[in-house]
Amino acid sequence: MMSRRTILGAGAGLAALSMSGARITAATAATDKRLMVIILRGAADGLSIAAPTGDPGFARARAAWSDSYASAPSLGGMFSLHPALKRVGEFYAQGDALVAHAIATNYRERSHFDAQNLLESGGLKAYERRDGFLNRALGLMPAQDFPALAIAPTLPLAMRGDNPVTSYAPTKLPDASGELVDRVRGLYSHDPQLEQMWDSAIKTRGLAGDSAGENLRGAVELGNLAARLMDNSEGARLVMVDLPGWDSHAGQELQLKKTLANLDATLGAFHDAIGPMWANTVVAVVTEFGRTVAINGTKGTDHGTASAGLLLGGAVNGGRVVSDWPGLAPSQLYEGRDLMPTGSVEAFLTGALSGHFGLDPVRTFDTMFPGRNQRAMEGLIA
């Protein structure tokens, strides 16, 4: 017997649907505003993304890598953007991007699994919640019709919960024929819920265009896909994207040169493909925790605490670094090794979402990240 929690992958090349009532609605959503949240899994090094080149402690701790920033784009007197982030630098110069630095969740250990769970669930402790902060945020939206989607093989924890969300993952397998699609729909016709989910999968494939039957061939394709899923009246208003590969214990300089270039290509392609809708779009980029200040013996860094977040889009009040900079002197480090957190990822995300969609920031914070005595960051949205 087929469970309501399992839908067969009979249509090769179709979206994988979450079983939380997933759908991309055919009706036009009530808002033109879009939000994309990108999670860099593996603990991205914020000190490389936006290097504090004006802090003497950076040159002392990262002397082997400091030459990389000799001609890097300046973010003001204290910070320099990683040279691989060329498009991000352009957005920053145009006022369409900002950096939030020295931010962390309330997690203070160094397990990827626990940290990612806490970030996505929005709980005070890892594994205490089964729903996600983005799904709970959907319940605050003024419009009942607010399409949401995750570009992932399975629905990420951040998007799980009572509100309907679709997950979509292109596959290497060839597209299903029209005959097969009709036959599978017939199999599901006895169950209205499964039939609706199958129709949602077909609709999502149509929004994705010709990429539905192909494997993503790199960062540009990912950016193009995200834009196609968001850029029309029937598209998603909230999208989450997973980007793994940020754990850099060895050979970090070369690794980040590649991963940051890929991130930059994704963001650049998304900007170019979404066109005029960029003006109503915000992209938030966060990670579960940061890296150690010092370079380790294998030319990498180890698990740390605070990192940096990015906020991009035409709706962003950008061209600046938002930070209560703690400094990199030995006495200023968290536990003598990490960038000290002076701001919170939760406040950053809440400020971006509530500001963009015009929601009450106090209620939004309490819904997304309950139990915290914090306030949303203000002034992130133009």
UniProtKB/TrEMBL annotation:
Keywords: Signal
InterPro entries: DUF1501 (IPR010869), TAT_signal (IPR006311)
A Pfam entry, by short name: DUF1501
The keyword Ubl conjugation is annotated on this UniProt entry: no
Residues annotated as signal peptide: 1-29
PANTHER family in the cross-refs: BLL7424 PROTEIN, DUF1501 DOMAIN-CONTAINING PROTEIN
Name of the protein: DUF1501 domain-containing protein
Species whose genome carries this gene: Qipengyuania marisflavi
